[in-house]
């Protein structure tokens, strides 16, 4: 099972999810309309819904299995509330966050900065930030293998903090026990062959791994 969080950033192309029977869909504010218009079920619609019309609000209430509406004046963002509720839906299911790129820059940064919040540290390994040509995962110290999402993907390692002893193996551009005192973006690396996972490890810090294609 995957929990799909669909956010409300402006979009022009139709919403397409890697959805399978048994998955759960959470529409965050206008994201609920994107889900309904694309024909996906809305297991939970959540937010202050200040971006929807009266007609769309009626549609959300009628066609969603469950609705949680909050006041616009609140301490948590709609995305933070949605993630907190998603964690209560399952203790282990991956959480794919869709439609998070686009629209206001402050919204984009507030979503990315979720990974720094103490209350979400224990579930970072479950989060995947998705877009049609990108996926972003955040890792805590350890040793990992990365499977290729798409044959044309580039592989980038983005330090979100200083990083100690970063090692990259089974990629075109390898690295051995490198330390970075400030966040550093190592972009446009490549998998060696289709079906062969890349490997990386580091001893301290927070690292984003992005797969992307043109």
TrEMBL record:
GO molecular function: ATP binding; kinase activity; thiamine binding; thiamine diphosphokinase activity
Keyword Membrane: no
Keyword Transferase: yes
UniProt xrefs under InterPro entries: Thi_PPkinase, Thiamin_PyroPKinase_B1-bd, TPK, TPK_catalytic, TPK_catalytic_sf
Chain ranges of the Thiamin pyrophosphokinase thiamin-binding domain: 142-208
Superkingdom: Bacteria
UniProt-recorded name of the protein: Thiamine diphosphokinase
EC number per UniProt: 2.7.6.2
CDD domains for this protein: TPK
Pfam families per the UniProt record, alphabetical: TPK_B1_binding (PF04265), TPK_catalytic (PF04263)
UniProt record, GO biological process: thiamine diphosphate biosynthetic process; thiamine metabolic process
Enzyme class: transferase
Organism of origin: Dolosigranulum pigrum
NCBIfam families: thi_PPkinase
Entry keywords, A to Z: ATP-binding, Kinase, Nucleotide-binding, Transferase
């Amino acid at each position: 099972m995957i929990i799909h969080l669909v956010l409300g950033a402006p979009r022009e192309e139709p919403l397409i999810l890697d959805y399978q029977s048994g998955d759960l869909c959470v529409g965050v504010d206008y994201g609920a309309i994107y889900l309904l218009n694309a024909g996906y079920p809305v297991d939970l619609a959540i937010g202050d819904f200040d971006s929807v019309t009266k007609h769309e609000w009626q549609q959300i209430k009628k066609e969603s299995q469950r609705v949680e509406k909050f006041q616009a004046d609140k301490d948590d963002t709609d995305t933070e509330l949605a993630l907190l509720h998603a964690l209560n839906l399952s203790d282990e299911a991956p959480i794919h966050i869709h439609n998070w790129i686009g629209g206001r820059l402050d919204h984009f940064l507030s979503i990315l900065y979720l990974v720094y919040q103490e209350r979400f540290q224990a579930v970072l390994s479950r989060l995947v930030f998705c877009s049609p040509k990108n996926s972003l995962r955040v890792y805590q110290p350890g040793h990992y293998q990365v499977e290729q999402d798409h044959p044309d993907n580039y592989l980038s390692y983005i330090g979100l903090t200083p990083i100690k002893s970063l090692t990259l193996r089974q990629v075109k551009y390898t690295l051995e026990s490198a330390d970075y005192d400030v966040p550093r973006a190592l972009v446009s690396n490549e998998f060696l062959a289709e079906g062969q996972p890349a490997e990386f490890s580091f001893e301290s810090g927070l690292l984003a791994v992005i797969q992307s294609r043109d």
